[in-house]
Structure formats: C-alpha cells, structure tokens
Amino acid sequence: MRHKILIVSAVALFTLSSCGEDFLYKAPQGSIDQEALTNAEGVELLVVNAYAGLTRPTGYDNMFNWVFGGVYGGDANKGSESNDQSVLNSVETYAVTATNDYLLNKWKDAYYGAQRCNLALNVMKEAADMDETTKANRTAELKFLRALFMFEGVKIFGPTGMPYIDETIAAEENDPKVHNGTDIYPNILADVEAAIEGLPEKQTEVARPTKTAAKALKAKILMQQGDMAGAAKPILADIIANGLSPKGERLALQDDLDANFNATTENGKESIFEVQFSVGANNNGNYGFLLNYPHNTGPGGCCGFYQPSYELVNSFQVDENGLPYLEGEYRNKKSVTERVTDYDYISKNDKTIAVDPRLDFAVGRMEIPYKDWGLPANDWVRNVSSGGVFLPKKHVYSKAEQDAGLAGSTYSSGWAPGSAMNLQYLCLRDCKLLYAECLANDGELSAAMQQVNDIRERAAKPDNIIYLEDGTPAANYLVKPYPSSHAAFSNKETCIKAIHMERKLELAMEGQRFFDLVRWGGDYMNKELTAYINYEKQYLTKFYGVSAPTASKTMFPIPETEIQTAGNDENGQAYLVQNDAWK
C-alpha cells in the first residue's frame, strides 16, 4: 500500500468542458481525465489516492495532533525558538484566533481527505469492469476513511462547525456551498457503520482497515460524542475480547512498549489501524512530526519542537505504593527534574523521587539513555528558555532503525528528519482505557480497574525499565497495579480519577490529551488547563498572564479565510457561521 501511494499524487485532476476551440478540451500534461480512470485500475489508483490523504503534508501537524491535542492539551510546549513557527506561540499560550494558519491547514486536511474519498466513490460507480465484491470492499474502505477525515475535523471545529459533504453533493459541483450549523455526527456514524458492515475481518494488505478497525473508530467517535453509556461500551468489549490486529493476530498488549513505536515491529498485536510511512523516494517519512526531533547532534538533528512539559513529567511521580497522585499532589512536590546551570548537563534528575517507568519511555531526560542513542547531549535541546529541558521520545527513531535504512535526517520533504515508523491511530491500549470509562460510568468499578491494572502491569514488565551501562536502573522506577483495597474499587469518583490519570500517563505525547479533556467536559478542561498553566509558569515565563480557555471553548474557531471564501447564499446568509464561543 505504501509503495502504491508513491505513484499517485495529482490523479484527481479532471478536464473541464467548454464551448469553443478544441484545445480547451485537452487535458493538461501530468493529469488524468475522468474517462481514463473509469475502470478497475483507475479506481484502485483513486482509492490509494484517498489513503494518501492520511499523510498529506499541508502543515506540520496533520492528523496526529501534536499541536492541538498535545501542546494545547498541556502535554508539551511548542519548543524551538519563539520566532520559529511563531504562529504556534498563540496556541501554547491559549491565544489562538480564527486567522491561525495551523487551523486553516486542519480544515483543509479534513476536506481534502474526504473529497478524495468522494471522487473515488463516484468514479467507481461507472467502472463496469470492476467486480462487485471488490467494489463493496473498496466502498467500505472509503467510507471508513471519510469518517476518519471528518471526525478529525469535528474534534477540532465541533460537530456543527463543519458541513458534511458526501459523494452525492460533490458530484453536483466542484466547489459545493453547504451551510454549517447542523450536527454531522450522524453522517459520520452512518459512514463508519457502513464500513463495519462491508469490511472483512482480515485484509490481504495490512494498511487497509478491517472490521475491527471500523468498530474501534466507531467507539472512539461515540466516546468523543459523549455516548459512553450507549453503543460504545459493547463495541469496546467486543474489540477487547475478539478484535484482530492488521496482521490478523488476536489483539493483546505488547510486553515491550517500544514495539508500538518502531518500524521493525509495526502493525503488531496491539495495533488496530496504523497510518503507514516509508522512506522511499517520496521523502514522506512521518511528515507530520518532521519538526519534532532532538536538535543539532541528536537523532534527526531538527528542529527542537514538541518538548514535554514540566507538568507532564511530574505527573509520573508515584507514592510509596507505586501509584500516581490522583489529586494533583505532585504539583506541590519537588520536581523530579530541575534546570541547573552549575552542572555538566542543563538539568539534573532527583533519583530519590519514585517515578513510573513510562516517564522515560515518553520523555527524553538528561542522564537517561535515549533509546539506543546513548545519553542525550545538552545541544539536543534547542532553547531551554523557550521550551524547557525535556525531549520528545516516543515517535523518534532508534539508531537501529537508522542503521537498517528505515530512518534518517533527510526523509521528510528531502531536508527534515523522518522514518518509516508507522503511527497508530487506533490501538488496544486506548480501547481498554475507554472501556474502563464505560464500566466506571455504569458503576462496574472492579471491572473498570482491571482494565487499568492491565495497562499498569504491562508498564511494570522488565522490558520497560531503562538501565544504565553498569546495569542499574536509570531512575527510581516504581509502578504497581491498584490493590483491590484502594478506594478506586469502591468509590466511583475515585475510580474515574484513576482512569483519567492512566490515560494521561499511557497516552502521553500521542496528541490525545486535549480531546480527552474536552470529552470530560468544559469545566473539567478549564480546571485542568488552569492547573497546568499555574504549574508551568514556575519554569517558563511565557505562561505569566496566560489564562486557560473558558469552559465554552471545547472546539476551535472556524478559519476566517474559509468563512470569507464560502461567502453568502442567495438570501445573503453566510454559508459558514463562526462557532458561538468564538464570535
């Protein structure tokens, strides 16, 4: 699949008909007209073209949401220098406006991907040489993809912020004008339900979604919508009990956390749906993360963005029982890592403080081995004053991957670092913790905590402990499951707090945090981000005077450019109306 994507780039260009000279009917060089694509081979090209929308290099965020899910959610600071990608300064300080270019790219990405799906669906209807079984399978794939693209848009702009444009609307005009203001969750769910019905249990190519992937996407959409008490719970239970990985394996947690972030172990037994990357001639290795590698002499060498926050790092502190602090107590304790100026390194770790080992899996710290690259150097951090002292780590490739030709410093756009490491969009660890939420919501606290403890027991495995060259642990690691005597097993509020914290720890730096905060309510989001800002400003002065988004701002503003471009209907009414919270 990934190699086919290299072939297709501008396949969606069609000729326009007009009265006049013959030359007006000729397709421009490098384009393919609709007649040439209306066959089985052409449809397959268009379907692959739709998959390519998952990796569209419009900006430096893409569907992995390190900007809006990670930085805006408090997982990380922008990093780098204040004058590099300065448009992001307003994101990390919660001063984003409708003119932000990153928002415009997110809007474009959603419709760009959906329109590729619409194009393939319409052309496929006319492909007489395509057998019905293949048509049904490709239709289900395209509806899965369209649901995914539009869901990504809804996560950013809200369910009434974006109009829904399907293949019937797209077929009527090239630039359809559709009013927003209608909840499009039902349209998205209808697409994903069709995907569940039409997709097979196992695909011959692992890049294509399966029935399990469609179920997981539906459950994730329902949870974001707030329907944990209804349809999401049985779907998640079924996935955990019976779901299959892209390779057809029964879903299970990997023993080694790194197996989920390594090009040599991709599409493994914990994965449900991954966006596939390669480092071939297209230079499209993990494009959405190309800024987010250690700087200078570090792996990748560019560009020092997406630095984990002090607040996130200290969330990994644990008590004497190896359990996290559920009431934010870590915010009143000494930081596990402090910036220093009279030391060989820019920061120093306090080894007397016990931490969950997942800290050093998600975050790079000085004096802690950085994957198989050895100890980080000071110049891996681009600007301490701008982003702090920590480094991103999960998505950064290993030296072994580089040596195997699967990664390098020029594998995104020919100049930036990238790798063939896939990124998991849907995975078992996420599903288990979503299911725990559903169980806790229904008062099934013991069952909910069993899902949490599964995740914690995996974190405690020897595979996930980082050791120094002398064989000693690199930090004071301690993580244990919750005992049945813990209040989380008997008190619903405590149980939910434990699940919320587990998601923060397990999914750290995966672009999920802000969307979780939104799911848990505007007031909850405001409270958590206020606490984050108040903590972070102890270390970074840019947070002085910053306020968290109000409870009403659980979505972002619609890009002003799109509102202006859409214009007004025949009655003078704007097609796109700004979200109420941002008017």
Q: Helix and strand layout, with pairings?
A:
Layout lengths: L1 H4 L28 H4 L2 H13 L13 H6 L4 E4 L9 H4 L8 H24 L7 H26 L9 H6 L12 H14 L12 H15 L2 H15 L28 E5 L29 E4 L1 H6 L21 E3 L7 E3 L9 H4 E2 L19 H4 L3 E2 L6 H5 L3 E6 L3 E4 L3 E5 H14 L3 H15 L32 H15 L6 H7 L2 H15 L23 H7 L17
Antiparallel strand pairs: 1-3, 2-10, 4-5, 6-7, 8-9
Helix pairs in contact: 3-6, 3-7, 6-7, 7-9, 7-10, 9-10, 10-11, 11-16, 16-17, 16-18, 17-18, 19-20
Q: What overall geometry do the principal axes of the alpha carbons give?
A: globular
Mean pLDDT: 92
DSSP helical segment count: 21
Q: Tell me the span between the first and last alpha carbons.
A: 43 Å
Structural class: mainly alpha
The proportion of strand residues reads 5-15%
Radius of gyration over C-alpha positions, nearest whole angstrom = 24 Å
Biggest sheet, strands in spatial order? 1-3
User: How is the main sheet built?
Assistant: 2 strands, antiparallel
Find the count of extended strands (DSSP E, 2+ residues).
Answer: 10
Helix content: 25-40%
Notes on the structure:
- This protein has 583 residues and is mainly alpha-helical.
- The chain is 38% helix and 7% strand.
- It has 21 helices and ten strands.
- The strands form five sheets. It has a two-stranded antiparallel sheet with strand order 1-3. It has a two-stranded antiparallel sheet with strand order 2-10. A two-stranded antiparallel ribbon has the order 4-5.
- Strand 8 (407-412) and strand 9 form a beta hairpin.
- Residues 1-26 have low confidence and may be disordered.
